Amino acid sequence: MSDHTDAAxxxxxxxxxxxxxxxxxxxxxxxxxxxxxxxxxxxxxRLEALAAxxxxxxxxxxxxxxxxxxxxxxxxVAATLEAYGxxxxxxxxxxxxxxxxxxNDTPEHWKEMILTNVYGAAxxxxxxxxxLKERRGHLLLTSSVAGRRVLPGxxxxxxxxxxxxxxxxxxxxxxxxxxRVTVIEPGMTDTPFFExxxxxxxxxxxxxxxxxxxxxxxPHVNVNEVLIRPTGQQx
Length: 235
Fold this sequence. Notes:
Elements: H1 3-8, E1 12-16, H2 21-32, E2 36-41, H3 44-53, E3 60-64, H4 70-84, E4 89-92, H5 107-135, E5 138-142, H6 155-173, E6 180-186, E7 189-190, E8 202-203, H7 204-215, E9 225-228
Parallel strand pairs: 1-2, 1-4, 2-3, 4-5, 5-6, 6-9, 7-8
């Protein structure tokens, strides 16, 4: 059997926010597990470099996508289905943070953060759910420890509370469809999220292993939440 035929039988893992951090680390682990990857982000150059690293067009597809644009999200799914014919896992991972304090950031940054973290995640769900239902697949969303506890003055924390709620709302909505839903909740992680990288932080690969743990469970097991803190993080 040819390599091309072998690849055509492999499941497909779609990741937003795939160019760096948790998204890129998850892509590498998923590729090692035999998944074909669809890598989405606004940064095409980084995506294409990662796609080439993971095996090129037969194994990894790079798609420029602004998650806050519905047309982009629809185009992302269309490109995935055209190239690979299926979506088995969708990871709504795109997001970013901001300064704490309700007087310490700009309204423009707030708007972009809310649109990306909340609206963008919701659009990824809306765009991928029909294909996931066909495969009885797996939907994952990146929330945060900040989506379980309130951080003082943090609008980012508010957006991640919304993502945590979105994951549970999706789980209930998809009950009976065979689609599993997991909310990933990282603690302090050494990613581009931080300008000054925290000491004793988790690495992106630590979170990616949590993602792959949830995805690798048998179909009757739905790991609904994966909360991962560094051992040295108290709150």
